[in-house]
């Protein structure tokens, strides 16, 4: 359970920057998924059920101008920065666990 700050800049304009904080890395990764799901809902307001696969989520992450995390490191009392690739890896692990495939190697 490491406090995690999610930094998001969807567009080129720096004024689009926002941040959210979470109690753990997993909660933060769930937050990234929710951001994408809200994006899909806005684009498809009349669709009652929205589904997507991980490659579509990763494409969304890649098209954001900036997405990064700051994760609290208790040992040094500092926050360590992580980039989009790290975020995608953590999302992949989270979704794999959620799907019940924790004992498979992908």
Short description:
This protein has 106 residues and is α+β, with helices and mostly antiparallel strands. The protein contains three helices and four strands; from the N terminus they run ββααββα.
Chain-wise SSE layout:
Blueprint: E1 4-9, E2 18-22, H1 25-43, H2 54-63, E3 66-73, E4 78-82, H3 84-98
Antiparallel strand pairs: 1-2, 1-3, 3-4
Question: Describe it for me?
Answer:
- The chain starts with a strand and ends in an 8-residue tail after the last helix.
- The protein is globular and about 50 Å long.
- Helix 1 crosses helix 3 (84-98).
- It is of the alpha+beta class.
- It has a four-stranded antiparallel β-sheet.
- It has helices spanning 25-43, 54-63, 84-98; strands spanning 4-9, 18-22, 66-73, 78-82.
- This is Enhancer of rudimentary homolog.
Count of DSSP E strands? 4
Rounded to an integer in angstroms, the radius of gyration calculated over CA atoms is: 15 Å
How would you sum up the major sheet?
A: 4 strands, antiparallel
Mean pLDDT across residues: 92
Which structural class do the helices and strands define? Answer: alpha+beta
If strands are numbered along the chain, what order do they take across the biggest sheet? 2-1-3-4
Uncertain stretches: 102-106
- H/E order of the elements? EEHHEEH
- How far apart lie the N and C ends? 25 Å
Please indicate the percent range of residues in DSSP E strands (runs of 2 or more): 15-25%
How much helix is in the residues?
A: 40-55%
Annotation field: number of helices: 3
Shape: globular
Pfam families: ER (PF01133)
Organism: Aromia moschata
Family: Belongs to the E(R) family.
Keywords: Cell cycle
């Amino acid at each position: 359970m490491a406090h995690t700050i999610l930094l998001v800049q969807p567009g080129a304009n720096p004024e689009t920057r926002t941040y959210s904080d979470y109690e753990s890395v997993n909660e933060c990764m769930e937050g990234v998924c929710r951001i994408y799901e809200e994006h899909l809902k806005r684009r498809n307001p009349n669709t009652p059920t929205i589904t997507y696969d991980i490659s579509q989520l990763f494409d969304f992450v890649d098209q954001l101008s900036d997405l990064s995390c700051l994760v609290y490191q208790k040992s040094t009392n500092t926050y360590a920065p992580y980039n989009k690739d790290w975020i995608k890896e953590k999302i992949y692990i989270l979704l794999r666990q959620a799907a019940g495939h924790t004992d498979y190697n992908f």
